[in-house]
Amino acid sequence: MRNLNRKEKGGGVMKASAIAHSNIAFIKYWGRSLGRDPSLNIPSNDNVSMTKLGMGDQRLQTHTTIEFSDAYKEDIAILEGEVLTGRKLQRVLGVVNPLRKYAGIDYKFKMESKNDFPTQAGLASSASGFAALAIATVNALNLRLSKEEISTYARLGSGSAARSIHGGFVWWHKGNSHESSFAEQICGPDEFEIRAVIAIIHEGKKDVTSDVGHESAWTSPLNKARVEISQKQADEIRKAILDDNFTRVGQMVEKNCLYMHSIMMTSEPPLFYWFPETLRVIKTIQRMRKEGLECYFTIDAGPNVHCLCRPEDMNELQKLLEKMEGVTKIIPVKPADDSYVTKEHLF
């Protein structure tokens, strides 16, 4: 990596855009590591995810453009047309400021970001959003960082964003410091045969954000056991992915999902992200499996259900979920590629 001097800044303007995809955690991140600076978003356990690409109109991605210029008098961040202030702006600055300092510049910036899917609905918009922001910022500042290094900066905005830097199947090492808490790819998107159908139950914003929910995880008396089990499961699911063992992956994904939601429901105050329709989808998945269609469920911090299946079973699963009362729409997804830089700017 190299710092920039004023001659390299191209007349005082530096600009880049990036696209990143959301991810679904197989082994969940819920609650920050005790005794660590909470602003670092260091997780309590290693965790594993799949970066996902929507196969229809919604590709489950965030497109972000950032520009540093001596013409700006203040930092400006815009998400879906909303000028961010307060806590939302501070999260953006949490990613940009360390990189701006690293590059040795003091220019202000303008950032604009758009999702092609609902924000704060339990579909990991913060993961794709802060991953895209980190990639765009690094490239605008012309910093030479590895994807693993970039993941540590994405993590400062949203922990799960560390995983969205990579495509395919991703391991987030919990670490014990900024440098050691990073994400790396387990294998590429085509190296493990799996698909998912997301059953959308509610696209509105959830009452309690994941960022707030992380703060209450350790108020649950069950969380210590969940962390210990999840750490073991992370190792086991990594092996199952590399062995292309869909059944084993599905079994562990379901269990780990239920472990996380048990923490939410037993924290202070209790958090209930599920809707009645969420449980209906869970029961339907269990019934389908008994009837011979091998599929599994997992749910992040929201009411919508990711239903995992083999590629050859995707159409059948999709048709069954589309008919369900309470499911407003479905989004078929497959493993996505890495986040990337684009020449298409939003402004």
UniProtKB/TrEMBL annotation:
Per the record, the GO terms for biological process are: isopentenyl diphosphate biosynthetic process, mevalonate pathway
Q: What class of enzyme is it?
A: lyase
The EC number(s) given in the record are: 4.1.1.33
Q: Which UniProt keywords apply?
A: ATP-binding, Lipid biosynthesis, Lipid metabolism, Lyase, Nucleotide-binding
Q: Entry's InterPro entries?
A: GHMP_kinase_C_sf, Mev_decarb, Mev_diP_decarb, MVD-like_N, Mvd1_C, Ribosomal_Su5_D2-typ_SF, Ribsml_uS5_D2-typ_fold_subgr
Domain Mvd1 C-terminal: residue ranges: 196-325
Extract one GO molecular function annotation from the record.
Answer: diphosphomevalonate decarboxylase activity
Give every Diphosphomevalonate decarboxylase-like N-terminal domain span: 20-183
User: What is any one of the record's Gene Ontology cellular component terms?
Assistant: cytosol
Q: Which family does it belong to?
A: Belongs to the diphosphomevalonate decarboxylase family.
Protein name, as recorded: diphosphomevalonate decarboxylase
The organism is Candidatus Nealsonbacteria bacterium CG_4_9_14_0_8_um_filter_35_12
